Amino acid sequence: MNTLFEKIWDSHIVQNISDGPTQLYIDRLYCHEVTSPQAFAGMRERGLKCFRPGQIFCMPDHNTPTHDQDKPIEDPVSKTQVDTLAKNAADFGLTHFGMMDKRNGIIHVVGPERGLSLPGMTIVCGDSHTSTHGALGAVAFGIGTSEVEMVMASQCILQQKPKSMRINIEGTLGKGVTAKDMALYLMSKLTTSGATGYFIEYAGEAVRNLTMEGRLTLCNLSIEMGARGGFIAPDEVTFAYIKGREYTPKGEGWDKALAYWKTLKSDDDAVFDKELTFRAEKIEPMITYGTNPGMGMGVSESIPSLESMDEAGRASFKKSLEYMGFEAGEKLLEKKIDYVFLGACTNGRIEDFRAFASIVKGRKKADNVVAWLVPGSWMVDAQIREEGLDKVLEEAGFAIRQPGCSACLAMNDDKVPAGKYAVSTSNRNFEGRQGPGSRTILASPLTAAACAVTGVITDPRELETSLAL
What pLDDT does 312 receive? Predict the structure, then answer.
């Protein structure tokens, strides 16, 4: 009668503290340059070494420029953070995938593609989108800097056990509808606080039919509903994806691991604290119109009216629309845009570039659009070139940048100017998230591509695609 979350959680308990948190063993700690410096400083002050350095992996991603990575970083703050991570990793004997290392990239893209994130693991990182790794059947969640230090020192963490929620998405997704649209749809229904206090298990026919990369996108956005994390039970899709990757078990180790992984599912009679079911057929390509990811709608729909809002939310709704320059009740189709961003830990994988290329093939980038196409890792960059997608994109007027978090957040050079509209495949559309005063419209790679070639907000289903969706 146990849920999969309970099975993984319970198998990692070191001790239960009476009337307190659980001491939980952590299989993998990821460190990037933004949230780790204070943790390393705390370790030095206490004269501690990392308890299990082999289970800690470091890489810069937030501050890395997406051009000229072979040259010194110009921004002094970014340079300091990236250099500090390299020194800390060396001093503490940790694996470090630095800039220009072929294994470098966004930490939540690199973990799965290298076989570092595996079913049944507990995985943490000082980054809210750590829930991405849950797509492999792991319990993965973001932690604070003091907790990063705790894991470094003990390979354990103190955590209150979240409640369990299962979200079933049944049926078949329509043409042009992706995992990103599923996530934006769920957020529009549940709001950004609807899953607060829960760990989500995604299930149902539409979830099972997602590729591994689609699952990574769906789990990535769990935090945007307020959830502690989100995950999907591993299956044949999972096993096929991770087999043969760099850090995946080999030989007898693989056989033993696979036998265990096949047991990782919720019992048929498992009881969840909350269970919800949605129909895949009701989801269309989604866009956001406001300043949180829950303010989303179908691309063909209209922004809600002020009257449809509860009284408590009206002030923030009005403020959000004022910031975006939109009006309640209006449609956004044909609205002129300025920037398009393909990338981030949400949509920086090879399938996202394939989807984008399928729309732009044989077309040209709109003259009014500045486009940043940023692979999530050097492995993705290599795949783009192996498949000839770089040629397709370049012929359409797009350039591929170097890996990094890029325009997901304003911590590097890729900032959207004030007042400009950016259709972005990233995960957050907060005020100033992509640059002070910037206006972000979240969308899937297909929708972003449609906007990039038309120069306005466009339903991707209206453009014939050159490749299969």
Answer: 81
Q: Using the Cα atoms of residue 158, residue 8, residue 166 and residue 245 in order, give the sign of their dihedral.
A: positive
> In Å, how far from its chain's centre is CA 266?
24
Which residues, 6+ apart, have CB-to-CB distance to 238 below 8 Å? 119, 136, 137, 212, 232, 261
Per residue in 320-337, pLDDT (tens digit) is: 999 999 999 999 999 999
Which CATH code fits 285-462?
3.30.499.10
CA distance 442 to 250: 39
The Cα 216–Cα 138 span in angstroms is 11
pLDDT digits (tens, 9 = 90+) for 165-181: 999 999 999 999 999 99
CATH superfamily to which 4-274 belongs? Aconitase, domain 3 (3.30.499.10)
- Residue 468 confidence class, pLDDT cut points 50, 70, 90: very low
User: CA 432, CA 323: separation in Å to the nearest integer?
Assistant: 10
pTM > 0.70: yes or no: yes
Selection from 138, 149, 150 nearest residue 261 by Cα: 138
E strand map for 101-244 = 122-125, 139-142, 156-159, 163-170, 198-203, 229-231
Question: What are the domain boundaries of the chain?
Answer: 4-274, 285-462
On the question of a common fold for 4-274 and 285-462, the answer reads yes
